What does this fold into?
Amino acid sequence: MTASDPAALARAEGLIAQIVDYPVEGVRFRDITPLLADGEALRAVVDELLRPFSGRFDLVAGVEARGFLLAGAAASVAGVGMVPIRKAGKLPRPQARAEYALEYGTAAIEMHADFAPGARVLVIDDVLATGGTLAAAVDLVDRVGGEVVGASVLLELDGLQGREALDGVATHAVFRASAH
It folds into this structure.
């Protein structure tokens, strides 16, 4: 995969809106829906999400909810399958569950094991903040028999030590921004 177009990525980054005090006071939410609605911007970020891991994965795992959107597009572009990692209680036959802390609460995610043991999996999510969600997703993939080759996110929030929570997992962020 070739290098991404810096101009296309800069335009894509400009489409990410910031919503102050959502979902709770003190949180600056990054709304990626304007980026998702723009085909050129979406393709640019999907290409960049995949670039560092090109040829090294068999599946893409997407973390609910916005990670699904990016992971589905990425899997299609890469020509591989996609497995969902969902919020607890949303899957009919979960085979693994992980609980984790958020910046503003706690949550749990679950997944099926609808792939061959040893499948190489790229985990994709929208935002890396404290790392709790991605660390839980990596744990789930490991527990159901996948081999995590890396994690790729649209946006990493600086200052929250999210990468440290991933304990050596190769991690790529398309964009970086201040958490505050």
